[in-house]
Amino acid sequence: MPAVPLSVVIITYNEERNIARCLEAVRGVADEVVVVDSFSTDNTVTISQQLGARVVQHAFEGYVQQKNYATSQAQHDYVLQLDADEVLTEELRQSIQVAKNNWQHAGYTLARLTNYCGSWVRHGGWYPDRKLRLYDRRLGQWEGLLLHERYEVAIGQSVGTLAGDALHYSYDSVEQHVQQLNRFTSIAAEELWLRGKQRVSVFHLLLKPCWKFVHGYFFRLGFLDGFAGLSIATISAWGVFLKFAKLKTKAAA
User: Which residue ranges does UniProt annotate as crossing the membrane (predicted)?
Assistant: First the structure.
């Protein structure tokens, strides 16, 4: 059986710092690369085109909608979805090639190893952070509401596992982490509101943030990652508080 043709799809918005690294790592694995861009104002589109990607402009409607749209733009049914700040390691590249040569599942998960402010994070619940990213688009779709989108295969379909890591270059600074946290907690609060979970108590505002820190820093061994582990655990706990605080003020409005 010949290798299945693979489309790599990437959604972008102002990713000029990351996109070249991502695209260069899929050479030899991708039979085509599609970048679905949300009208970037930097050089993302130019860099993508220079490196051989086909660029499609599409206004951002939400992560689920954007990734389903990007999947639909692929020429091939076998798709690898990546974020612009992710890079395939050689081990993962080889594992994807093995899957292409002997496709057996509706989808495959891969592990992500995150770089936080220059340090690789292996604890605190951040690794292996498995995501289903390689899939036959005929057998599933992206699902979710506003945040935490996920790819779901159809009922009864099997999921395989890829060896190797995708290197995830997340935050260059604590300031960047906090800025994104503020944006994501607003989206998360809105999602809770839409799901009808509008009651906020001291449990949500005090105990859940404390547990988030303790669980990540101690039980999930975040302290072994040094400053990165402490920063992640602290900011993550703050994020839990912000999410419910925003929900409470929304409910009171």
Answer: 217-241
∠ Cα 116 120 123 (to 5°): 95
pLDDT (tens digit, 9 = 90+) per residue, 118-146? Answer: 999 999 999 999 999 999 999 999 999 88
**Domains observed in the chain:** 6-171 (3.90.550.10), 174-251 (no CATH)
Cis amide bond preceding 128, omega within 30: yes
Distance separating alpha carbons of residues 125 and 216, to the nearest angstrom:
6
Question: Which DSSP symbol is given to 42?
Answer: S
Residues linked to residue 12 through DSSP beta bridges, in sequence order: 37
Tokens standing for 119? Answer: 């340090």
d(CA 217, CA 66): 34
What are 150's strand-pairing partners? 143
